[in-house]
Amino acid sequence: MSLGPSDAGFAFGPIELNVISFAAADPPSDLLAALTELVCHGNVRILDVVLVARSATGTTGFRELEIEDPNLTRLTLHARGLISEEDLDVLAQCVPRASTAAVVALEPTWAREFAERVLDTGSVLVATVQIPGTAVNAAIDIALEG
Q1: Cα separations in angstroms, 123 against 30, 38, 59, 61, 116
Q2: How far apart are CA 127 and CA 122, in angstroms?
Q3: How far is CA 79 from CA 45, 46, 71, 116, in A?
Q4: Longest Cα pair distance anywhere in the chain, in angstroms?
Q5: Quick one: 93 exposed, middle or buried, by C-beta within 10 A (0-12, 13-18, 19+)?
Q6: Nearest-angstrom CA–CA distance, 108 and 101
Q7: Cβ distance 95 to 52 under 8 Å?
């Protein structure tokens, strides 16, 4: 499988790696349902999901998400194995001790078309910065107070 541009356009656009922590060993069913809803509405494609367990002492373990719930059949992983062990080693440091997190590689569907359009203009997208919603809302709250 080629990951670069083709005559039909990009196979994949820019992706986001989201680290979502929770107290249980497995993701809450509501979290998986929320991801499925985003997929069903055409907002994202889920490329890969890896669970990271971090012990109270800080040791980590990784495992692929197994989707067994028949209600989640639309949650197809389009590039299982995309998240590397090196990525996981770095991202595991974000996971609170004595908890688990899902590392979700997702592609906002608009981003692939945007990347193709940028390329079509002869331009190059050289950087993308994503600011977490919690930080944006806190900054806006501070700005509105002042």
Answers
A1: 40, 30, 44, 41, 10
A2: 16
A3: 10, 8, 21, 20
A4: 52
A5: exposed
A6: 21
A7: yes
Q: Which helix (H) or strand (E) holds 115?
A: helix 109-120
* pLDDT value of residue 5: 47
Judge contact between 18 and 104, C-beta under 8 A.
yes
CB 49 within 8 A of CB 103: yes
Query: Which residue ranges in the chain fall short of pLDDT 50?
Result: 1-7
pTM: predicted TM-score of the whole model, two decimal places: 0.81
Per-residue pLDDT tens digits for 73-94: 678 889 999 999 999 999 999 9
Using CA atoms, how far residue 96 sits from 10, 37, 106, in Å, is: 36, 27, 22
